[in-house]
Amino acid sequence: MDRPQITFIEEGGLPRLKWEYEKERTGWEDLLAFGTADMDVACPAPILDALKKVLEKGHLGYAMTPDRYFDAIHNWLLRHCGWDVDTRCAVALNVGVYLSAQSILDILTRPGDRVALLTPVHFCFKRKLNLNGRVPIECPLVEIDGRYTIDCAALEACFQSGCRLLWMCNPHNPVGRAWSRQELQKIADLCLRYDVYIMSDDVYCGLLFPGQRYTPIASLSKEISYRTVTMYSTSKSYNTTGLRHSFILTENPELLKRYREDLDRLDLSYGQSSLGIAAAIAAFEECDPWLEALMEKIAEHHQLVTEFCRENLPGARVAKADSTYFAWIDLRGLGIPPAKLGYLLEQETHMVVESGIALGKGGAGFIRLNLAIDTALLQEGLKRLQTFWQRYKR
Questions:
Q1: What is the pLDDT of residues 120-174, one digit of tens each?
Q2: How far apart are CA 97 and CA 102, in angstroms?
Q3: I need a surface site. Which of 45, 72, 326, 391 has the fewest CB within 10 A?
Q4: Domain range annotation of the chain
Q5: pTM for the complete prediction?
Q6: Gap between the Cα atoms of 234 and 357, Å rounded
């Protein structure tokens, strides 16, 4: 069988938030976009073929979710992480991970309740909690020899303060960790001890570096699974964000019942995206070889950034990663006020990056660099970063 090709999208008038919007916003044609968590990669051929088949039928009305959809999810989880879960009795569809999170927050918490976050983490987590009257309690991750892990003593202190829910990310955006079974077990033990529920955003679950493994926290035991809701989508792993399709998985029948009732409240229970369903089936059934090829390329890019910074930006450390398509880079050595870092980079190098200060405690002075980009553009971005480093290095 031929090795799947990873095709990087070239500019061609396709209106994208990551590139075209940013160029329109800044007015710079030489802009490099390393910010938005979107890949500059064409979807795998099986997904595109599945979408074409739907379009050829000519009907884009209300779709029924076939048994094959649930089977595809079941088999993918069993194949990739050994989790044998009855997906027909545990899965409910939605149109996006954050809309799912909204429902779960409404089910498991009330305004004023505390929710623990492992930071730095995607800024939407804290923003959504604040906008919905919940209180984010930030538990910073700790870095040991360049690799991030969880400070269990700090997490326990967060739970002791009265948190009702832990909103976690696995694999973790932005530091690029796929939490190990041992790390997850420590979290699970604390959640059981302090009666804390878990909402796990596992949207990056397919993006594992070669030799790494994804472990859902709900797969540890039935006891922990009953207090966990896991959120999934093909959006990040297969670059299908525009299809607006997601699903949650929980083995707790009461939580699933209440979640489906909330879908009724939002009028989202009747029919889902026919294109999203078709894409998910194709992704989970046919795209494992494509994912492997993709993550070999991403791992190469991460190594490229790590070695470049080591050789040309002494003091700018790149966190060790085992997943996602991000490089998490420590630029604190420049002494630039964290609130100005992203702005100065954009203005002086014409590069858009994600500034770590927006990602919570532990993020100030860092940047997140999107690696799902053509190698030549990545190399150009590194040259600009080197020039910026040399200008400000004290």
A1: 999 999 999 999 999 999 999 999 999 999 999 999 999 999 999 999 999 999 9
A2: 9
A3: 391
A4: 17-43+289-392, 48-286
A5: 0.96
A6: 28
